[in-house]
Specification:
- The protein has helices at 3-17, 63-69, 103-120, 124-142, 147-162, 171-185, 192-198, 203-217, 230-237, 241-257, 265-279, 286-293, 297-310; strands at residues 29-32, 37-40, 46-48.
- It is mainly alpha-helical.
- Among the domains are: 14-55, N-terminal domain of TfIIb, CATH 2.20.25; 124-217, Orthogonal Bundle (Cyclin A, domain 1), CATH 1.10.472.10; 226-310, Cyclin A, domain 1, CATH 1.10.472.10.
- The radius of gyration is 31 Å and the shape is extended.
Length: 316
């Protein structure tokens, strides 16, 4: 075989091996999805055109417009017992145009709703899960928890149900403890009194079930940081950003001095908010802070003096 023929054969083999190389300059070939072309990133040569465009035929200029034009359904979620994969039949007896249905159509839709409900909850386990997730959503909404916390609480309850932790305990008690644990894990804790106010079980059962669930499931729940309560309390009392910043400084100083050890984080946060409001010349009272934080005025006074004593620059 001649040298020229051997050289041309080697070139053809190298071209076959490097299918992503530009035939003109040897640069990298990239895919332009907008124009459905393969283009060299270095010299701009169009290597291939009129390919199959797998994108949508519509355009969107922001995320909201993109969501409105999307043809897929809602994403799966753990907040529903069937993860949102089933059909929901609207309770309003109206058609797609908003017109009221006739009597026969209403009876038909009522039968369909009944059978749809029966198919969605086929056994006792699914009925249990449906009731519990409804309770979790109700309580999380009542105390103002975001969707990610509700999702986490739902996952914790599903784990408890799978590991057979429910016998001997109420659905309401376990679901309440899941909400409390999820809120603490997400860094947006709610006090036990706040959770108890929206729950259908008493405080002792919530605390007992919460300890049982985190122990059996091996959940890592760090102690609540008092500073995480400050924004919510300050917002409810309509205090300034300066006051919030001062409250955080008081809590940081108390943590360095070890004053926070063994104290309720809610009580410390409430006292810090009250002290910061006084230090920044903003009007508030212990009664208002007590109402917002759902803690006694005596606790606020005790923690208030401890925080000020820990602050070296402030004479008491």
């Amino acid at each position: 075989m001649s040298k020229s023929r051997l050289k041309s054969r080697e070139q053809e083999e190298s071209k076959t091996e490097r299918t992503d190389a530009c035939p003109e300059c040897g640069g990298l070939v990239v895919h332009d999805e907008e124009h459905s072309e393969k283009v060299c990133a270095d010299c701009g040569l169009v290597v291939e055109e009129e390919g199959i465009d797998r994108g949508p035929e519509w355009r969107a200029f922001d995320s909201q417009e993109k969501d409105e034009k999307s043809r897929v359904g809602a994403p799966t979620t753990n907040m529903m017992h069937d993860k949102g994969l089933s059909t929901n039949i609207d309770w309003r007896n109206k058609d797609a145009y908003g017109n009221s249905l006739g009597s026969r159509q209403r009876q038909k839709m009522q039968r369909l709703r009944k059978w749809n409900e029966r198919f969605r909850t086929r056994d006792a386990k699914e009925r249990n899960l449906k009731q519990a997730l409804g309770e979790i959503d109700r309580m999380a909404s009542a105390v103002g928890l975001p969707d990610n916390v509700r999702e986490t609480a739902s996952v914790i309850y599903r784990r408890a149900l799978e590991e057979d932790l429910l016998p001997g305990r109420s659905i309401e008690g376990v679901s309440t403890s899941c909400v409390y644990a999820a809120a603490r894990q997400a860094g947006v804790p709610r006090s036990l009194d706040e959770i108890n106010d929206v729950s259908r079980v008493d405080k002792d059962e919530i605390a007992r079930t919460y300890r049982y669930v985190i122990r059996e499931l091996g959940l890592e729940v760090k102690p609540a940081d008092p500073a995480s309560y400050v924004p919510r309390f300050s917002s409810s009392l309509e205090l300034s950003d300066e006051s919030q910043h001062r409250a955080r400084e008081l809590l940081e100083n108390a943590k360095e001095k070890g004053v926070h050890s063994g104290k309720s984080p809610v009580g410390l946060a409430a006292a810090a908010v009250y002290a910061a409001a006084l230090l920044t010349n903003e009007k508030t009272t212990q009664a208002k802070v007590s109402e917002v934080a759902d803690i006694s005025e005596v606790t606020i006074r005790n923690r208030y003096h401890e925080l000020l004593e820990a602050e070296d620059s402030i004479p008491v």
